[in-house]
């Protein structure tokens, strides 16, 4: 009788554990945020160019009906391959890239992204960066949603890098239902934000960012590189 009674607490504990496991299995997995899509669902094209005296390559890709134009300031070289732009960031030197998008009216001066870097201190594949050391930076733009990957992932900064991303390329349709209405206005003023994730296996999370309703953009100070998206 004593043995049977002593087994009762163990049986209850095992039953509770099984119930807990079952409840845990029923809990929904964390979902991704609602990503803001480019207007019209068109695949953007890119053109890259530098200021006079800079070495740069220029190319056009994608649909001629829409596009992005990028100009790099303060960089020694700039290259383009499909939907990515690359340039060298140097510790102790201000380097920045500005990417403009081609609006539905044909205006190429509408800003999409501005990235400024002056103090990269650690690169995953290189280790600590001394004063004057350089690291190759890649900006990869998603062709369907207003999302970018800044590489190398995990690049650390002493003084934060400055990122500004505009969502004006969505054309006002922030929920992707094909209609610009009061729902989109509510999303913009109450729900929209700048989100990030470390890797493809990581969960998305919002980051502190300043919103400009007039510029339809978010600005944030980045301590490191990862993937960023305008979403809600």
Distance between the termini: 60 Å
Tell me the structural class: alpha+beta
* Total DSSP E strands: 17
- Based on CA atoms alone, the radius of gyration comes out at 23 Å
The helix/strand order is: HEEEEEEEEEEEEHEEEEE
Describe this structure in words.
With 232 residues, the chain is an alpha+beta fold. It has a single domain (39-231), classed as Sandwich (Chondroitinase Ac, Chain A, domain 3). 15% of the residues lie in helices and 41% in strands. The chain contains 2 helices and 17 strands. It has helices at residues 2-26, 182-191; strands spanning 46-50, 55-56, 67-73, 77-81, 84-90, 95-102, 110-117, 120-123, 127-128, 134-141, 147-151, 156-166, 193-197, 205-206, 210-212, 217-224, 227-231. The strands form 2 sheets. Strands 1, 3, 6, 7, 8, 9, 12, 15 and 16 form a 9-stranded mixed sheet that branches. Strands 2-4-5-10-11-17-13-14 form an 8-stranded mixed sheet, with no helix packed on it. Strand 6 and strand 7 (110-117) form a beta hairpin. The protein is globular. Mean pLDDT is 77; it is low at 1-30 and 49-66.
